[in-house]
Amino acid sequence: MNIGPNTVAVFHYTLRNEAGEELETSRGAEPSAFLFGASNIIPGLEAALAGKASGDVFTASVAPGDAYGEVDPQRQQRVPVKHLLFKGKLRPGMVVQLNTSDGRIPVTVVKVGRHSADIDTNHPLAGQALSFDIEVVDVRAATEEEVAHGHAHGPGGHQH
């Protein structure tokens, strides 16, 4: 079976930035699972996985526009430090969590003041071309419940 509409793909990945530095990997842990076509992963990675089958191993290069977007300079703002979740001393360059009405989002600290901080709400990987080393572990038909919920269930997917 190939990855396509109404399928769940289970895969291991290693994510690298433009400099080739490893940023994240699923190796040594549970593989990731996603429902194809439900926008559960970045568009460029989903497009690269389309048509692949269990056992396929490949590298996918994803441009910033198909990953986390380009950096938008308008997405910087000043917020009270009490709205940020972090450990230790707050420093420029740290990626911390910002409490919003829609939940927590990762933000990058640009400048730290006594009671407030300037933050960048662009995704930390915005503006970067990314490389994914992929190993497709399994491809299966999605259940009706997964299609209705818009995500994969079970190991590597969403748990209810």
Automatic annotation (TrEMBL):
<comment type="similarity">
    <text>Belongs to the FKBP-type PPIase family.</text>
</comment>
<dbReference type="GO" id="GO:0005737">
    <property type="term" value="C:cytoplasm"/>
</dbReference>
<dbReference type="GO" id="GO:0003755">
    <property type="term" value="F:peptidyl-prolyl cis-trans isomerase activity"/>
</dbReference>
<dbReference type="GO" id="GO:0042026">
    <property type="term" value="P:protein refolding"/>
</dbReference>
<feature type="domain" description="PPIase FKBP-type">
    <location>
        <begin position="6"/>
        <end position="80"/>
    </location>
</feature>
<keyword id="KW-0697">Rotamase</keyword>
<protein>
    <recommendedName>
        <fullName>Peptidyl-prolyl cis-trans isomerase</fullName>
        <ecNumber>5.2.1.8</ecNumber>
    </recommendedName>
</protein>
<dbReference type="InterPro" id="IPR001179">
    <property type="entry name" value="PPIase_FKBP_dom"/>
</dbReference>
<comment type="function">
    <text>Also involved in hydrogenase metallocenter assembly, probably by participating in the nickel insertion step. This function in hydrogenase biosynthesis requires chaperone activity and the presence of the metal-binding domain, but not PPIase activity.</text>
</comment>
<dbReference type="InterPro" id="IPR046357">
    <property type="entry name" value="PPIase_dom_sf"/>
</dbReference>
<keyword id="KW-0143">Chaperone</keyword>
<keyword id="KW-0413">Isomerase</keyword>
<dbReference type="Pfam" id="PF00254">
    <property type="entry name" value="FKBP_C"/>
</dbReference>
<keyword id="KW-0963">Cytoplasm</keyword>
